[in-house]
Design goal:
heterodimer, A: 2 domains, 3-stranded antiparallel sheet, 5 strands, B: mainly alpha, two-stranded antiparallel sheet, 8 strands, globular
């Protein structure tokens, strides 16, 4: 089948030289797109290809996309993490900071718990090594990277509480709850 | 005397408020319509928060116009080091003022008779009738062209005074373009003037209230369809918008003649451009689209000749006709914005060739044909 030629001819024909009809054709194209999108919008559908970004997560993230981290919990609510420092050791970007805390010396399976578990998303490269290194399945990645960006480096440190119960703020104008002050030097 | 004065003040306030708000609304329409045509959402982040609550009014991005104005007011008022002091300060106003003044001759409604609205008003106004037009002059259209021509001087002064080669080039382009297109702008309307036999825009509107051939509204566009297209083309060129935006072609001349203007001075240039869209639409509506007339409707009510007629109260007819005029103006503005976002820019030689070799002969031809038709249809010079 012969393919349709889309590029313009070298010389304009009489039809094109008359301007008006070609202009009406162009206006018809743009106008019909406009009416189509307006009609969609008026009937409660989406008239656009773009998304209202922070309010609307795009639905087509791959299910195994490496997004932001999530700390898993045990049934009693305590963190799975045993503060073994494996993830922070394997991390090529050195962005995970863990401060261990002795929880219960007699509980041999989980003697320690992180007092502080923080990830610097300004440096994280989303390689997923921490997930592979973890012996306890305590850290995972979910598919989206919702609401991570910030205008401030310090605000990119995401703490243990936020990683456990990720609670993205709906409001872009409002900053995140203030981070731990001791991090700022 | 006092009554006339009060009516005049009301009309002037209405016109100024209407034009300024149209200027602001059209910036929103331009953004949104362009976005929707391109499958995007458009500006929608600007909001006003209701105090003490977390409810944010975005109003589909309407507040962006306010934010724009605020930004322009708060910006640094930069002045180039070597500039012509008088001309530099005069230029934005010479562009902006004529655009507002021009609306004086355009009728924005039917005929207002205060005594018909409420009997109480008759004690003050008597039996007077007021055509809804700030100045109902016999030479309305000429005044329009005369005042609109002043804004060319503004653009020339702006380019000359700011001591910048880009500005100068832009203003040279603007001057040659506006003067060449003003010719075909005027010529395309002479045929219309011949048909209506008047220059008064108010009378043109009244003449368009009838019906031709039993069903078509007697609008100018049906008498002079060709002149309508020519006029719209020349008018968009007068307004220096894409596809005729050579004076401010940003890829060649930064911003053209207002390169060296900042803050609200630049805002006046932008604002006058948007108001001029509304003005062009208003003039087009008045001359070609029957102004405030709807088909089968006049100042008394609805009618279909020979079949029926319904009288409507005057207090309903007057605002309704103003609304019709507004809707027509908004539709025409939207159409102009559609053109602006559909067509690419001309090259400069193409622009002038289009003006002089294409538009001018066509409008002359249109005039000649109209003259002959009018001469023979009206009975050969008796």
């Amino acid at each position: 089948m012969k393919r349709k030629e889309y590029w313009n001819q070298e010389k304009m024909g009489l039809w094109e030289k008359l301007y008006l009809f070609e202009i009406i054709r162009g206006l018809w194209v743009t106008g019909s797109v406009f009416t189509r999108n307006m009609f969609r919008w008026c009937t409660g559908r989406k008239g656009t290809l773009t998304y209202y970004y922070p309010e609307e997560i795009r639905p087509d993230f791959s299910p195994f996309n490496r997004g932001r981290h999530l700390l898993t919990t045990r049934p009693d609510g305590a963190l799975q993490c045993i503060a073994c420092q494996m993830c922070s050791t394997v991390c090529p970007a050195r962005c995970i900071e863990i401060e261990a805390d002795i929880l219960d010396i007699k509980d041999t399976a989980h003697p320690k718990q992180p007092k502080r578990f923080e990830i610097d998303y300004a440096r994280c490269i989303f390689c997923g090594f921490c997930i592979e290194a973890c012996p306890e399945d305590a850290i995972r990645m979910v598919k989206d990277v919702h609401d991570l960006p910030s205008s401030n480096n310090e605000e990119m440190w995401i703490s243990k509480e936020e990683l456990t119960h990720w609670n993205p703020q709906k409001d872009v104008a409002k900053p995140y709850p203030p981070k731990n002050k001791e991090l700022k030097k | 005397m006092i009554a006339d004065f009060i009516i005049g003040i009301i009309f002037i306030t209405y016109a100024v408020v209407l034009l300024l708000s149209l200027g602001a609304v059209l910036t929103w329409v331009e953004r949104k319509q362009a976005a929707i045509m391109a499958d995007r959402i458009g500006a929608n982040r600007c909001y006003i928060r209701i105090p003490f609550t977390n409810i944010k009014l975005t109003a589909f991005g309407l507040f962006h116009a306010m934010a724009d104005g605020l930004k322009m007011l708060l910006k640094e008022n930069f002045k180039p080091k070597a500039y012509d002091r008088v001309a530099y300060f005069l230029a934005p106003w010479l562009v902006f003022t004529p655009v507002l003044l021009v609306f004086a001759v355009i009728p924005f409604g039917g005929v207002l008779t205060p005594s018909k609205i409420h009997p109480w008003l008759a004690t003050f106004f008597g039996d007077k009738t007021y055509p809804m037009q700030i100045a109902s002059l016999d030479s309305g259209l000429l005044i329009f062209f005369a005042i609109a021509g002043i804004s060319v001087i503004g653009t020339i002064l702006a380019g000359w005074s700011s001591q910048n080669k880009f500005s100068l080039l832009g203003s040279i382009r603007a001057a040659s373009q506006m003067i060449s297109y003003e010719l075909s702008l005027g010529l395309s309307l002479v045929g219309v003037i011949l048909i209506y036999g008047t220059l008064d825009l108010g009378q043109m509107t009244t003449q368009q209230s009838g019906v031709i051939a039993g069903f078509l509204p007697a609008w100018g566009i049906f008498f002079q369809p060709f002149a309508a297209i020519l006029f719209l083309t020349a008018a968009i060129a007068e307004n220096k918008r894409i596809p005729f935006d050579l004076p401010e072609a940003e890829s060649e001349l930064i911003a053209g003649y207002f390169t060296e203007f900042s803050a609200m001075k630049m805002g006046l240039f932008m604002f006058s451009e948007f108001i001029e869209i509304a003005i062009i639409s208003a003039l087009f509506t008045t001359i070609f689209l029957g102004g405030c007339n709807l088909p089968w409707m006049n100042n008394d009510g609805l009618f279909i000749p020979g079949i029926f007629s319904i009288n409507l109260p005057h207090a309903f007819i007057v605002p309704f006709q103003m609304l019709i005029f507004l809707i027509k103006v908004l539709l025409m503005s939207s159409f102009q914005i559609l053109i602006r976002w559909s067509l690419p820019r001309f090259r400069y030689d193409q622009l002038l060739a289009f003006g002089w070799k294409f538009l001018l002969p066509l409008s002359t031809l249109n005039l000649i044909i109209t003259v002959f038709l009018v001469y023979f249809i009206r009975g050969g010079g008796q």
